[in-house]
Every structure is written in C-alpha cells, then in structure tokens.
Amino acid sequence: MHAPSLPDRTIDAYADVTRSDRLERLRSLADTLADSRILHVNSTATGGGVAELLRSIIPLCNDLGVDTDWLVMDADDEFFEVTKAMHNALQGSGPPLTEEMKATYRTVNEENAIELEDEAEYDLVVIHDPQPLGMLDHLEAAMPTTAIVWRCHIDLTDPSSEYLAFVSEYTARVDHAIFSRSGYVGDTAVPETSIVYPSIDPITEKNRALDAETVATERNRLDPLSFEDPLVTQVSRFDPWKDQFGTLEAYRRASADVPDLQLALVGGMAGDDPEGLELYEQVAEEAAADPNVHVLTDLPDSGVNVLQRESDVVVQKSLREGFGLVVSEALWKRTPVVGSNVGGIPLQIVDGETGYLVGPDDAAAAGERVVDLLEDDDRRAKFGRNAREHVRERFLLPRQLVELLDVLADELDRDR
C-alpha cells in the first residue's frame, strides 16, 4: 500500500463559495474528532471521482485538526480485471463469478492488509467501494477495536445476485455503510446506513475560476477544436456505462439541425480500470471519419475546466451512474447539462431549470434537447445561472464534509 502525495488545503479557502454556518459546523465537528485517528483506503490514486474526492478531503481534515491518512492498494492487472468485473456486475452486467476470481480478490486484499500491521492503530477505517473490502478479515484481527465504515460510490439498484452475495459477506460485518442514494442500499447486507451525496471541490484546478491567460493557453492546446462554432462536450472515463457511443448518436442527430456543431468526448484513464484504453480506441475509431468530433484523453484539469466552461452544452448520457460529479462540475461553471435520468444525475439536474433529463437509451431525445438549448441563447443563460446556485447549495465539498464527519463522529461515539 502507498500514500499518495496531497495538495495543500485550508478550510478558510472556501469562505467565498459556501455558507459561513457550514464552515463553523465543520470546525465544531473537528473538535469532537480531535483525538481520533482515521484512515481512508481505496484502490487508485488517479482517475475517477473517488480519488478526486479523497485528494481534497484528506488535507482538509488534517487542516481542521482531524488526524487523517489515505492509503491506496498495490495490485496487479489480474486483480483489477476481477474488481472491474465486480463493479460491472454490481451495476447490472458482468461475467459469472468464479472461485478463481474470489481467490485472486482475497489474496491481494490480504497482502495489502498485512502491510497495515506496521501502521499505528486507527480509531476508524473508511473502506471505499468493493475493491478493498476483502481486507476486512485481516483488519478485524489486527485492529479489533477499530470502527469500520464502508463508503459505497456505485449504483447497486440492479446488482448481480451472486456478486452481491459475495460482497455482502463483508459488508454485513462493517459497523456502518454510506451510500450516495437511498435507492442504492437495496438488498445489500449492512447493519446501519447513511446517505451522503458526493460533491465537487470548487477551488481545484478543474473547478476554480481561470484567468484569461490560462483560458487562452488551453484553447490553443485544444486546436483544431473551435470555440467559435457550437460545441457540445461529454467528460467521462472511457467506460461502457458512460455510453460515449450513445452520445455520438445524439450528436449526429443534433448536427442535422445545427450547422458546424462539434462534439468533444473527453476522458481519463483510471488506474484500477483495465477496460479504459480498449474503449478509448473503439470510440476514437468510431469517430475518426468526422472532423467535428474530437476524442481527447488525459487533458490537464485546467483543460477540462476550459472545455466545461466554454462549451454551449454538456452531455452526460450514462447508462448507469454512481453519481456523475462531472454534471455538477459543468453546472458550477454555468453550463447547462443534458443527462440521463439514472443514478445521481437527476439529483443534480433540475429538469427544465438547469438542464434536461432524458432516458438512458434515448439518443434521439438527447439530441433534441441539445438542439433546444443551442437554439435559445436566453434559455442557456438562464439555466446556467440557476445551475450555479443549485450546485452552490447542494454539491460543494464543505456540505459533503459536514455530513461525512457527522457520520464518523457518531460512529466513534457509539464505538467508545
């Protein structure tokens, strides 16, 4: 296991973007946790929303005086192929679960958990998603008084029963589980649950306001993409659930009504997702014949910021979605979003006020809604204003951190 490098964060930096009572509540909660040691464990330090959230949450907790560490699993491709299959199956579509897959999962988790023996004992460990759950056997023996919280970030509304049963062997033994939506709890075996919506960090390079020089630099870097012609963008990992092919179909339908329409499909590669490169190549091949489609990968955060900010419309046509914080990223930048009504997307888009919701398989409706927005400048501007305030109230990091620390403080108090 290894500890990722972390940026500097201070809670005072959020004073201009969030309510003062939330910051005071954070300081109060931090005082109650001042004598506790907390560890977060996940499977990757790069790519995907979980790593992004932890990169902000961990330094903020320490700035508040809560002794908090973050460790990332060390694993090979074989393990990540198993956990990717697990992720897909828990969201509704995956291969049969074999005894060999279970053995790979348990072996890698045990190897990582053994490394924790050299760490000072923690009062509470937060395990993120299914990948590190297999560490529980060893943690129970090595840290018998430690409270364990499972943080599930994925959509469990229609899981494979055999995978859910395997995961439930572990989740039934944690002390508490946190989900992103109440509908995700389902039949998962967990003793107690809380619902905490994820959030975006408004002061990161991806989400902060940019100066004119940075915007100009990133625009030049994105050449030949033009910011003078209409532009639709989707920002997502290259993952089958993000449905880049469906977004291509929606774009093609919209381009019949909007001359010179462009599409940017932007994605990164998560360290724990072996499917990413293969899907990127498939999407790039599908789009290659159209010079107005730009398939971009591993842009700097400032480049993603510029694209979300300068696009006319952002699309998030996911088939399944744990939460989809790229929606709030765009809305925060006053860009309306056309998104699927799955997962956490309907919590972020107020249909007809900040963007539009469509069925996950309805590329035609997505294309029509894109055209509706592109042809009405006043509507886009109004939706953008609404979007900014909606995200300010519900989906910025200080709100999430208040709710997270509330859960951890209650769990530690009960444990003591």
From TrEMBL:
Isomerase found in the keyword field: no
Any GO molecular function: glycosyltransferase activity
Any Gene Ontology biological process: glucose metabolic process
Subunit and partners: Homodimer.
Position of the signal peptide: none
Domain Glycosyl transferase family: 228-389
Organism: Salinadaptatus halalkaliphilus
Keywords: Carbohydrate metabolism, Glucose metabolism, Glycosyltransferase, Transferase
InterPro entries named among the record's database cross-references: Glyco_trans_1, Trehalose_Metab_GTase, TreT_GT1
Family as reported in the entry's similarity comment: Belongs to the glycosyltransferase group 1 family. Glycosyltransferase 4 subfamily.
Entry keyword Transferase: yes
Name this protein carries in UniProt: Glycosyltransferase
Trehalose synthase N-terminal domain span: 40-185
